[in-house]
Specification:
There is one protein chain. It contains 16 helices and eleven strands. The protein is α/β, with parallel strands linked by helices. The protein folds into two domains: 241 residues, Crotonobetainyl-coa:carnitine coa-transferase, domain 1 (Rossmann fold); 70 residues, 2-Layer Sandwich (formyl-coa transferase, domain 3), CATH 3.30.1540. The protein has a six-stranded parallel β-sheet with strand order 3-2-1-4-5-6, with helices on both faces.
Length: 375
């Protein structure tokens, strides 16, 4: 039995972190029912739907109609948790706010995902990952000495958003076992991105992190923690932080170890020396040289290459889902194996089945469909 089997989660269709949160919960066995907009997701490009909505069931409901709102309230009454990603106040205006749903289902965990949070002077403003991570110092710390570089949308949307929301929902479900009561989880990408920066802020406070990009050990400033171009134009990643790893790196490269390797004053010269060496051979030659070593040298693989790497194959890091190769469910449990991922459903594909599970008759489903309440 998967870890979350027996739990029902209602996911209101959204963009960014909410779909990944739903995917994670579904991967581990939760019955995630996604409430989609009739005629389309209204949120995600069609080419993303299969990946972003894998493992869920989809019910298409028109939430602009009172009957559609009433149906969503009834559905939430059968759930352990809901997750939504609207701006503050939107769910309340729809008649689906926490007060309404928790009054109907006092054990419900109400997971809210926003960029700026449910309150504060910027709460009602639009924003994206780049804005949230910019406001908490994360974007400033990532990039070259010339300019910040957006780290995809991994820090705000996904690490600071989806995973924070999933953690919050599961923590609230655990607390419910003690109290018997649900509650609201206010997960904000700005909070999550700041939390991910906690260790770096700790280093800054201790005086061992310079508040400048590419000037520290972990931000590409140190020559022993960075990427180097190979003779074929591909890249190699070097992470030889500890002295024993650095010694092995230099030994395999045929270079003398650097006694002053931790002194930033020498980093530029050391980087140029390493760059010259790595530029002499193609990437595969370096992969073979460092195979099995503790020098912490690995290839920088393209997304199309990653699923075929022997280690990823051996661990099933990527798995087939329909006709695609996708990241496998994680983490792994010794007893509670994750669900086998299935492709995302067509919008509304499970409308009838979900309504029937709520005890709604075929005649009433036909009536709801004829009125455009469900699709």
């Amino acid at each position: 039995m998967s870890a979350l089997e027996g739990h029902r989660i209602i996911e209101f269709a959204a963009i960014g972190p909410v779909p990944l949160c739903g995917l994670m919960l579904a991967d581990h066995g939760a019955d995630v029912i996604r409430i989609d907009r009739p005629g389309g997701s209204g949120a995600l490009p069609a080419e993303m739907l299969d990946v972003a909505t894998r493992g869920r069931r989809s019910i298409a409901v028109d939430l602009k109609q009172p009957a559609g709102v009433a149906l969503a309230v009834d559905l939430a009454a059968t759930a352990d948790a809901i997750v939504e990603g609207h701006r503050p106040g939107v769910m309340e205006r729809l008649g689906l706010g926490p007060d309404v749903l928790l009054e109907r289902n006092p054990r419900l965990v109400y997971g809210r995902m926003t960029g700026w949070g449910q309150d504060g002077p910027m709460a009602a403003m639009a924003g994206h990952d780049i804005n949230y991570i910019g406001l908490v110092g994360a974007l400033h710390a990532i990039g070259t000495s010339d300019a910040p570089v957006p780290p995809l949308n991994l820090v705000g949307d996904y690490g600071g958003g989806a995973m924070l929301l999933a953690f919050g929902v599961l923590a609230a479900l655990l607390e419910r076992h003690r109290s018997g009561r649900g509650q609201v989880v206010d997960a904000a990408m700005i909070d999550g991105a700041a939390l991910l920066m906690a260790p770096t802020f700790g280093l800054l406070g201790a005086g061992i992190w310079r508040d400048t990009r590419a000037a520290n050990t972990l931000d590409g400033g140190a020559p022993f923690y960075g990427v180097y171009r190979c003779a074929d134009g591909e890249w190699i990643a070097v992470g030889a932080l500890e002295p024993q790893f650095h010694a092995e790196l230099m030994q395999r490269l045929g270079l003398p170890d650097e006694p002053d390797r931790l002194d930033p004053a020498h980093w530029q010269a050391q980087r140029e020396r390493l760059a010259d060496v790595f530029a002499e051979r193609p990437r595969q030659a370096w992969v073979e040289l460092f195979d099995g070593s503790d020098a912490c040298v690995t290839p920088v693989l393209a997304m199309t290459e990653a699923p075929g790497h022997p280690h990823n194959v051996a661990r099933d890091v990527f798995v087939p889902v329909g006709d695609r190769s996708e990241p496998a469910p994680a983490p792994r449990f010794s007893r509670s194996a994750a669900s086998v991922p299935t492709p995302g459903p067509r919008v509304g594909a499970d409308t009838d089945a979900v309504l029937e599970s709520m005890g709604i008759s075929g005649a009433d489903i036909a009536m709801l469909r004829s009125r455009g309440v469900v699709h």
